[in-house]
Amino acid sequence: MGEKPCVVLETQLLCESPNLTGRHKVLARVGGIEFSPGVVHITSDSPLSSTAIIGITAAGVLLIFFIVVMLIAYKRKSRESDLTLKRLQMQMDNLESRVALECKEAFAELQTDIHELTSDLDGAGIPFLDYRTYTMRVLFPGIEEHPVLRDLEVPGYRQEQVEKGLKLFGQLINNKIFLLCFIRTLEAQRGFSMRDRGNVASLIMTVLQSKLEYATDVLKHLLSDLIDRNLESKNHPKLLLRRTESVAEKMLTNWFTFLLYKFLKECAGEPLFSLFCAIKQQMEKGPIDSITGEARYSLSEDKLIRQQIDYKTLVVNCIHPENEKSPEIQVKVLNCDTISQVKEKILDAIYKNVPYSHRLKSSDMDLEWRQSRGQRMILQDEDITTKIEGDWKRLNILCHYQVPDNAVMALVPKQVTAYNSVNNSTVSRTSASKYENMIKYTGSPDSLRSRTPMITPDLESGVKVWHLVKNHEHGDQKEGDRGSKMVSEIYLTRLLATKGTLQKFVDDLFETIFSTAHRGSALPLAIKYMFDFLDEQADKHNIHDPHVRHTWKSNCLPLRFWVNVIKNPQFVFDIHKSSITDACLSVVAQTFMDSCSTSEHRLGKDSPSNKLLYAKDIPSYKSWVERYYSDIFKMPAISDQDMNAYLAEQSRMHMNEFNSMSSLSEIYSYVGKYTEEIVCALEQDDAARKQRLAFKLEQVVAFMSVES
């Protein structure tokens, strides 16, 4: 190879390459033969070049530097994590302490409040509404002065003709063939709204108040038709009577309203009123935000204050507004109550057993703080001392005025103050400042000067009012504000505390409603009669599923009448219902509805809090409902003779509660709107045609249309 010989052995040809590099010719000689197999290329196995060595060294240095930097960063991050962990641990410890305090307070309240509530309610008069007011609030909710309560108002020149027409129309209404055809025709009209259906049902019941036997017969026919239509349309039978989508359903509600008034007064009214008072009193034991309606104590998660509100209970000695010489009345208030809230609590205490409509109204009164040395000071929700921070204005509370415990208060007739006058642009800023100087504070002289200047209308534009909690829908909450809040779910323990306090009153009400004989009052005949009617209809249609029958009865009475009464006790009593009380009653009403259901409620972590709140109680309540329906089914059937005698008695008792002519006039307005359709329907009905009902209706229309 090259110029260097290779050693040739018998078994192999071994060539040791010369210490050369590059391309060399290989030459083989064997004896006299010489040949070249080719050229070999020899590479050098010397060390790396200097360029490569420098590159590798630089890369190594960079790698070491990166590792050192990473170690330093990791060390610093670890130190920060340790500090964060310690800070979180401290926050958790503080949170745990506060939660423990909340639970301890809730437990103490559970043990002490029930006795206090019960003792306060003992002997208190129940301000039942009279029959007329009660029925009007259920039949026509939200309408104070309905035409059916007063004489028919018709111009003198038309009065005789209109009265003749309405008397004829009254005869038609008392004709079952006409009335059924009239109702069915109205319901077939596309323009006949849900509101119209409810209104017509209520008007018909006011006309037939003196003829409840006839009204019951008509109602049964309408319900029978409704059941037939429901089953023919392949709807699930359980949906029957679920909603008020027909005249019959609203008439059924009104029928129970008429016939259960006596039962309410003699039996169910007492536990319902006790529950209302218990809720009201329990809510007022803690702060209630007068703007949002949220409260420290609530059954409703939506109306629960989810912030820590520091407050203190004060006792104020109140002078009777109508008799200053009578002994002062001690009233418990909170130092975070607004002035309006204090006035309401004082009026509640002074007029404890007086119907709400008969007592003085807080809006007509001013709260006067009577201090030592004859000094008197008017306290108001807003005055020249009201604090404004940015675009938020806070209502004045008792501690704003630094009212002490055992202060003497009096309610005096509303006065025109300088603040109100300034707001009405009737006095000058000078006179307002004079009033400001008259105000006396028990604090330091600087306390007045440090307060926000007088509010004027131009400054008030765009100002948002708050009491205890700012409404964060405005998006003005600062990140730092969250630090003062506890985790919202922690406050849900207060729902349990409130529920436990009110449990006895809820149980008493449910037990009274779902009992066939309670406190000496027998089951109203109307309930047995209507339940038997539903069972007859189920038999007629071969419906033997006990769940369907149970649901029909639940939709008929508990969900159609009792839920309405529980949610709206102001339909039965002369009381004022606040928004927080309304929210709590809605939770009770929902529990009542769940108790009447046959379906199983599967609860999970995402279930509404009101369902979780009573989850353990509902199985027990359901057993009460099932036993109630079973006991009614086992009772002897009521004969038509006995039922008619009962209905006749009820009609006599309330014969002249409504003005029938005014009611007929209101119903006739629908005849005027759909005259052609009603006349056409009467002409197509064989029974109506035999009695010439279409002609008689046209006579009515003629009388009512006469202008002179």
Automatic annotation (TrEMBL):
Keywords: Coiled coil, Membrane, Transmembrane, Transmembrane helix. GO terms for molecular function: semaphorin receptor activity. Residues 125-678 form the Plexin cytoplasmic RasGAP domain. Residues 78-105 form a coiled coil. One of its GO terms (cellular component) is semaphorin receptor complex. GO terms for biological process: morphogenesis of a branching structure; regulation of cell migration. The chain crosses the membrane at residues 52-74. Residues 299-411 form the Plexin cytoplasmic RhoGTPase-binding domain. SUPFAM superfamilies: GTPase activation domain, GAP (SSF48350). The keyword tRNA-binding does not apply. This is Uncharacterized protein.
